[in-house]
Design goal:
Length: about 425
């Protein structure tokens, strides 16, 4: 079958990448040799068939064996100027370095997100985020400046201070996690601050599922009058991968010009074509030659779907990132994904924050959900328990706890605890 125009460009980009890294990259040279790919690949199908997957566990072992940065660096270490580290939510943190050219590739990919969000020079972007070593919004910040936006950092502040700072600046764009967008709205209520006239028209969310879920998106947009939520996802070791658009707010559109994207059944090599179910997202970074990843199993659970007027290989992700493949918990035969539970909880008004505990210490696993109410005088426990049972056909022990019992999250929310 003849390749499409997109596939032709992807293959050319892949072979340029291979030509650059094959002579120098100690991690991938033996893999490419075993796949008969040192001189490039004749087709994308040959690449997918012969090239093995790369896993996060493999990268972690490599960094232990070749400290501190592993053997994935293509060029001499002295040429690398950017340092980032994964958040560690999926195991041992991975350190990732970029040279100026590869970092610019990352930044250029984030520029596409700004463009799709209708950003124009002179706009202001407010980053409600404390910048740490993981990629976070670093690339968004740098790309905002290159796009001519006024980028405002707000680290080192309490939520109330940050909110007052935001209201004084009246930015058009707010960048944060979905959880923190709701947290800021809650703080506004507590501090008797109005978000009407805040200036915020776009809320770019990332870091956790939620922005592509209608219930959570609706709650954020209701809390921030006049604003539209735009979802995005990326990874430290991969870079910016996707964005949502007004025409398809519950889908994530992938940057297919920058990544060779695949979806496979978890634990297997079997492809999952668009419209045929869920699978694990696999990415090849086509332009990050200084620190490449070939067929990287991201661990993200997704549902590929075709978009109208687009070829099948330019698929999108329905519902965004549905969860992590390794985050699924089976309780009495029921598959529970954190993102699905989060959507169910957010459907019930009056829930401020919550935590899920799975207790496997008895004969039958028990699942408990503890929550704080937005109004201490109200107790939506019964309504929440009934809603959860109706969706999952599983009994949750739902309990209201006093204000301040549960942590408030600015970064990635960690709401699940497994007892075994």
């Amino acid at each position: 079958m003849a390749m499409t125009a997109l596939e032709t460009r992807q293959l050319a980009a892949l072979n340029r990448l291979v030509a650059e890294i094959a002579p120098l990259n100690r991690f991938y040279r033996p893999k490419l040799a075993a796949a008969e790919g040192l001189g490039g690949f004749s087709s994308l199908e040959a690449f997918r068939t012969r090239m093995p997957f790369t896993t996060k566990e493999e990268l972690a072992r490599d960094q232990i064996a070749h400290p501190p940065y592993g053997s994935t660096l293509t060029y001499p270490r002295a040429t690398y100027t950017r340092f980032h580290q994964t958040s560690g939510t999926g195991g041992r943190p991975i350190v990732w370095l970029d040279d100026p050219a590869s970092w610019q590739w990352v930044v250029d990919n984030w520029k596409v997100v700004w463009q799709k969000a209708d950003a124009v020079p002179g706009d202001t972007a407010f980053f409600a985020f404390s910048f740490g070593p993981f990629l976070g919004f670093w690339a968004a910040f740098d790309s905002a400046i290159q796009c001519g936006l006024r980028a405002i950092p707000s680290g080192g502040m309490s939520s109330a201070e940050r909110l007052r700072f935001l209201l004084a600046q009246r930015p058009r764009f707010l960048c944060c996690t979905p959880t923190y967008a709701l947290r800021l709205a809650e703080v506004a209520r507590q501090e008797s601050l109005s978000l009407f006239g805040s200036g915020v028209q776009r809320i770019l969310v990332a870091g956790e599922p939620g922005g592509s879920l209608p219930i959570i998106r609706s709650r954020i947009e209701k809390a921030w009058p006049g604003a539209r939520v735009i979802d995005h996802h990326g990874m430290t070791e991969v870079g910016p991968v996707s964005y949502s658009v007004a025409e398809h707010p519950s889908h994530l559109c992938l940057l297919h010009e920058s990544y060779l994207c695949e979806v496979v059944q978890p634990g297997t090599n079997t492809p999952v074509p668009p419209g045929s179910g869920r699978g694990e997202l696999v990415l090849t970074t086509l332009g990050r030659a200084a620190c490449p990843l070939l067929r990287y199993r991201t661990g993200d659970l997704v549902q590929p779907v075709a978009l109208p007027h687009e070829p099948p290989e330019a698929f999108a992700l329905a519902g965004g990132i549905l969860g992590r493949v390794d985050d699924m918990v089976i309780v009495r035969g029921v598959n529970l994904y954190p993102s699905a539970v989060d959507a169910a909880v957010r459907a019930i008004p009056g829930i401020r924050e919550y935590r899920v505990e799975i207790d496997n210490r008895g004969t039958l696993a028990q699942v408990a959900l503890f929550f704080e109410a937005e109004d201490p005088a109200q107790d939506p426990a019964s309504a929440l328990a009934k809603h959860l049972h109706a969706i999952f056909q599983l009994r949750f022990d739902v309990q209201k706890v006093p204000d301040g019992t549960l942590p408030a999250f600015e970064m990635k929310a960690r709401r699940w605890k497994i007892l075994s």
